[in-house]
Specification:
The protein has 605 residues and is α+β, with helices and mostly antiparallel strands. Helix content is 20%, strand content 33%. The chain is built from eleven helices and 32 strands. The two termini are 39 Å apart.
């Protein structure tokens, strides 16, 4: 895809519009930005060859020099082969093979917002539940009527069935709650699939297209976790009526699902619960004939919304000519005395009172349920001898030399003066990993260390056995006994971690996600530009992607909302190296002496 901006190529306004387009369309392929004059181009195929991104050669389909094109392609392959040799220089001690998912890089800094393109919403009024598709975070949040997060469906981008914490989605959008089966049917748009979340079992299943699932044996599970075998992935059956980028979902009176693409050009009819594709219709006129009245009835409430807000949404949503608001079909739902609306431009949820017509923000809470976001989590398998991380993030490093025994680690984190923590840090937002000659003391063992002399390697195998063979009930009990001892003094967060160490070298990695918003300060409140600049300082676009600072500021100003209500994530990454000396000998020269130590680490975000 190419964009020609002429002399205004580098303007912040054009970059801002481009960011909005990438975020909405979820563009992951390369973009061409150029100020070269291509006015001589006409309809048809064209080829543009760049050598060092200067002096491009332009050919149309008729006069293309195939020899030149072939030579350029060969040179490109040779260049790729030359650069591929750089990968082994990372000298990984061992790196788990992981699934590579491509995501938009230009606006990746906006992933640190609480909501990143909240595209669609559905409700279960009898159960007081809402289902919010946080699309570009690849998850569906389950909320109650007060905005409390009850559960979360999906862990990271990909395509994998399983329990909510391990299931992978790829940009979920419209959803429909099925009361009889107590399950949620939803569109998995980038996977071109319809999937089902069984709420009682907390399981995600693929309804369409039908697929051959991987083996569920223990050996398969071990190979999959080690990344040794990737041939067990689900194989989808291709059919003539395969879904292509579905967006909207409507439940019909005869218990079928109407699936509509974003441009309202194709309608698929899926039979439930068999998951059989019944019919496919093309053309907006046919869609209007089948679903027109349903769409009109649902979007009619939007006439009470401010006209400037609607125009803002129309710029980023496709609609039918007969129904200008049709593009917002899946972005609103009636819930009790309100209409809940997804604002994909302002990255928020709005609440419209049916009686008074007042519009307010729908506030969310209980962020610990979301856990540590996938883009912030680090893997011990991806530790390199150079000591550097692949993905750029601020890592606070400390090193200590201590005697073996129990070590109590206290992290004191100072919140920036321009921000405030929304709620006390919950254990779900903290992840602690230990490697080397140390092992974390979980749960109640933080208070009293075990006297059993077991090597850390044997403990690792014991923990693996417990993980594989424990029942869900046992896991729930263990989670209740491992509540983090996090405290919240004024402007400070405290995180505690306890490890048992043996002589040698070990490392402790602590990752956390802090949910903040700008503090209501009179100096910032007077100027939206000052608030936008302060917000950008937290998001750090230059470090997390290729977005310019000015572009990020312009985008935040364009959303036309109170930036003091915008919730964002500030990652905390701490790496502590422990050099543990040999055991001191007791008076009888036979027994070892274990020492209790305490480490205090002060960090400013």
């Amino acid at each position: 895809m190419g964009f020609q901006f002429g002399s205004s190529l580098c303007s912040a306004a054009n970059h801002t519009r481009l960011v909005q387009l990438i975020m909405t369309e979820y563009i992951t392929f390369p973009l061409l930005l150029t100020n070269k004059d291509f006015t001589e181009m006409k309809n048809g195929a064209w080829y543009i060859l760049f050598r060092g991104f200067s002096n491009p050669f332009v050919y149309n389909e008729n006069n293309a020099d195939l020899g030149t094109l072939s030579k350029a392609i060969k040179e490109l392959h040779l260049a790729q082969n030359d650069t591929s040799g750089l990968v082994p220089n990372l000298k990984s001690s061992w790196m788990k093979q992981v699934e590579v998912i491509k995501e938009p890089d230009v606006c990746s800094s906006f992933r640190n917002l609480l909501l990143y393109f909240p595209g669609c919403i559905s409700v279960d009024e009898s159960g007081d539940r809402l289902f919010l598709s946080d699309s570009n975070h690849h998850r569906i949040m389950i909320l109650d009527g007060g905005g409390k997060i009850l559960d979360c469906i999906g862990s990271s981008p990909g395509f994998e069935d399983g329990v909510f914490e391990s299931a992978k989605l790829m940009r979920p959008l419209a959803s429909v709650y099925h009361a009889a089966d107590n399950c949620l049917y939803f569109v998995d748009s980038e996977n071109h699939a319809i999937r089902r979340a069984v709420l009682e079992k907390r399981m995600v299943e693929t309804v369409y297209p039908t697929c051959t699932k991987k083996s569920s044996s223990l050996w398969t599970w071990i190979l999959d976790k080690l990344g040794i075998e990737r041939d067990f992935d689900m194989k989808l059956e291709e059919t003539e009526s395969s879904l292509v980028l579905p967006w909207h979902l409507i439940k019909s009176e005869d218990d079928n699902l109407y699936i509509i693409n974003r441009s309202f050009e194709i309608l698929w009819v899926l039979e439930l619960p068999s998951g059989t594709m019944q019919e496919v219709f093309e053309g907006s006129s046919k869609i209007m004939e089948i679903c027109g009245q349903i769409i009109v009835d649902k979007v009619s409430i939007l006439r009470r919304m401010p006209s400037d807000w609607l125009q803002h949404q129309f710029d980023t949503n496709c609609s039918l000519k007969e129904i200008p608001c049709a593009g917002l079909l899946s972005s609103l739902a009636s819930f009790q005395d309100h209409v809940i609306i997804c604002d994909t431009v302002g990255q928020r949820i709005l609440k419209l009172n049916k009686n008074s017509g007042l519009v307010s923000n729908f506030q969310l809470s209980n962020f610990g349920i979301l856990g540590l976001p996938y883009w912030l989590s680090s893997s011990l398998e991806r530790v390199y001898s150079s000591g550097e991380e692949i993905c750029g993030a601020d890592i606070h490093f400390e090193s200590f030399t201590l005697l073996p025994g129990k070590i109590d680690i206290d992290l004191n984190v100072d919140i920036p003066k321009n921000a405030e923590l929304l709620e006390p840090l919950q254990e779900g937002c903290v992840w602690c990993q230990v490697r080397g000659a140390a092992v974390e003391v979980p749960g109640t063992d933080k208070i009293e260390a075990s006297t059993e002399k077991v090597g850390s390697a044997q403990q690792w195998y014991d923990n693996l056995d417990t993980l594989v063979f424990s029942t869900p009930e046992e896991e729930c009990v263990e989670e209740e006994n491992t509540i983090s001892d996090c405290k919240l003094p004024e402007g400070r967060v405290q995180i505690n971690c306890v490890v048992n160490t043996s002589p040698g070298t070990s490392e402790v990695f602590i990752d956390a996600a802090l949910y903040l918003k700008l503090k209501r300060d009179s100096n910032l409140h007077d100027s939206q530009e000052k608030m936008a600049e302060t917000m950008v300082d937290f998001l750090k676009p230059e470090r997390h992607g290729r977005m310019r600072r000015g572009t990020c500021i312009q985008y935040l100003l364009k959303v036309k909302r109170d930036l003091e209500d915008l919730i964002f994530i500030t990652p905390l990454r701490v790496r502590i190296k422990l050099d543990i000396l040999n055991h001191p000998k007791a008076d009888n020269s036979k027994d070892f002496v274990l020492t209790d130590s305490e480490i205090k680490v002060n960090i400013s975000l």
